[in-house]
Amino acid sequence: MNVVSSVFAKSPSNIAIVKYWGKHGNQLPNNPSISFTLSRCFTETHITFKENGGDSYNMEFLFEGKDLPKFKEKIDKYLIDNQQYFGFLKGLDLKIESSNSFPHSSGIASSAASMSALVLCLLQIENIVTQSVTPLDRRKASFLSRLASGSASRSVYPVMTLWGATPSVPDSSDEYAVPLANMVHPVFKSYHDSILIVSNKEKSVSSRAGHSLMNGHPLAEQRYQTARQNTERLLKVLQSGDIQEFMTIAEAEALQLHDMMATSTPPYRLMEPNTLKILELVREFRKETNVPACFTLDAGPNVHLLYPDEYTTQVQSFIKDDLLQYCHDNQCIDDMVQSDWNK
Ligand code: PMV
Known about the structure:
- Helices cover 36% and strands 23% of the residues.
- It has helices at 69-81, 111-129, 138-148, 186-189, 207-212, 220-240, 243-262, 273-289, 312-323; strands at residues 5-18, 23-24, 28-29, 33-51, 58-63, 66-67, 92-100, 160-163, 177-179, 192-196, 294-297, 303-307, 332-336.
- It is globular and about 70 Å long.
- The site of (3R)-3-hydroxy-3-methyl-5-(phosphonooxy)pentanoic acid (PMV) has 15 residues, from helix 5.
């Protein structure tokens, strides 16, 4: 039999409010994290496959039509390290083609979107190969995505997700993320995330290296403890809709993430002068206008400006008039929370 079959998946990026920073074992987090699932930054992946008559798999990988050896190596390593879950790939030739909705040189970490899209495709291949009609098991998708990239575990549910065992959420786990949509106040379901692209360069220190610098970090235990407390605080805020408290937690988490970098051995800094300028302007804007816009940061220099839908016009003018000048090529990606998968 030499039939060519194909599968497709689209999966979004996410932005953490409580940050995952530090891990152990096979991609297990040292503290829980909570994120917004985004809607406009996503990866689309097509996989075509056919039997090759052998007993191992071959894989070709194209990103936006071009070979990307670094990413192919990452996928190969993932499939080999976790081969107990991917026995169904034996004897297949796979052609993986992936593309992002956002400019790939925008400096936006894409591993959450790309690895979860890959896993969603692999689960469809499993169904086809094993002739099963099992509906998509999102918990399994989250588990397998986590093994590829911790933050990818949070991209398989809309609205908001929690990854990491947390006492007040009984089904939460370090092994997979759980959806929070049912516990979230409506104001957060249409939250905006305008991503201010301060730099589109590759980070000088990768997230993988950053996580490992948390091992032996003198402030690590304190950080994990704070993140656990912030997780419980944020869960309450998400229910009550207390935007002021939300902003306090979001900004503290962002700054603490970067403090961990500054106090690692060796110390490093991913924020740039324009990052700091934008943070300052956001705080001034909030003070002067009372518009509840706050920032968060990923492991990089770009600023995520978070605000409720009803303030869109005011915040958009602020971005255009005061912030774009500090962005690389005036670049800003206007994203918002993915409120449901059908949109
Ligand atoms: O999933 P990783 O290994 O790329 O780590 C992500 C780390 C942060 O983006 C900084 C925080 C987070 O929780 O997403």
